[in-house]
Amino acid sequence: MGARRGLGFGGTLLTMVIVVGLAAAVGIIPFRQVLAHDRSVELARQQRDALTAANLELERQIAALETPGEVERLAREQFGMVMPGETALVAVPIPDETLPVVDRPTEFIDHTPWWRRLWDFMSGQDLAADE
Question: Which of 17, 25, 96, 120 lies 20 to 30 Å from 36 when distance is taken between CA atoms?
């Protein structure tokens, strides 16, 4: 019978390191996935809470719009409607006295000769700002 040779201390240590490394990798990867899913669940809960709050606000607005008082207020405000027997009054603001009131626009009369206007047009001087 021949002598049986083992892996030795180095081989055994290497095998142990590989086994422990594989076990750690197999345990770490699912752990990271669990953390990622946990975070996505938390984000979904936050979105749900925000949507629930918005939904409650919309339901409150719907309930308010179904009341006769709110319908009347909107009809008066947006459409200028009045109840039978009422007279609608519209307040017109008083014009500011400091501003001059002009009935018609003033006409601009250019006294420049036609040849000067033509020259200014051709030379581009009509585009320059007046000094």
Answer: 17
